[in-house]
Amino acid sequence: MPPSAGKRGAPPAAGGDGIDVLPDEVLQHILGFLEAHESVRTCVLARRWRNLWKSAMVLRILAGEGKFLGSVQKLCNFVDNLLRLRGGSPLDKCELGFTNFARDMSGCSDEDEDGNRLMRLVNTWFWHSVSCQVKVLILSAYPGCQYEPSLVLDNRHVNSQHLTRLQLEGVVMGSRFLNFSNCPALDYLEFGGCYFDADDSRPHICAPSVVSLHLLEIWGMIPMLESMPSLLNAFVIAGQESWDTCDLENCNCEFCEHSYGIGDCNGSNDSVLLKCLSEAKHLALLSGLEMVCTISFLPQLYYVSPLVFIFKRDLRWCPIFKA
């Protein structure tokens, strides 16, 4: 095979058949359907395949459901070497999943070198994918709400002209991260089992270009949504880990000024959800508990579920649904 055959876009060798007749771009597209450790193994097939995996447009690093059976140390070393060899090759999609190692990252102590190293490196890998002009970015640190989020992403703005879809599960984000005004192409945003750290204040999400928004089982305060003029679809599920609750019997939460979780550090009691979501054409709002329930072994304790609490207090702004 001539030396030029290993270069991107080079024609296949004369007389080849089967998959060998396909151009490099097609082979790199096919490699994108494989997980990263499987894609790398193709380098031993033939000289032409030696470097194809480095330019694959999809990167899947998955360590969940038995997909990566090595230790934390092996995972860290593998991904570090993988990204070093890929360099800054652009990405259409990057999927990072580490649910197999949720216990290693959840509540790890200072002495847990492997767990702390994994948490640091996952954060590094996330921002590296952003720098590679990724269009679809998925990071799943923990399965659902089984563990309290402790994987902290750097609290800085995501600056990307290319990112169109962002899905995060089981991570902690600060207030600066939640400002997506520098992501003009971002049209799909999903948070599942995440915690928004805003220094005991209500976090704000700014995503003016988002068309589809999913907030699922959020820990802490339910975030206040700033204007989303492009919003068409919204799906919100308030989990039991939300701090937005009311424990007063027969309380009219619409005007309640005593329940925990109202407003923010700036004294704002503006609408949290409904004012922004009133722009959506398709809207689903679900709460896991009844509106008001009496706990059997504490008959005097009343509980208003987080989402209902937010809805009742948002009603003071009389939102008009335009769809």
From TrEMBL:
Gene3D superfamilies named among the record's database cross-references: 1.20.1280.50
One Pfam assignment: F-box
Domain named F-box: residues: 16-62
InterPro entries assigned: F-box-like_dom_sf, F-box_AtFBL13-like, F-box_dom, F-box_SCFL_complex_component
Name of the protein this chain belongs to: F-box domain-containing protein
Organism the protein comes from: Urochloa decumbens
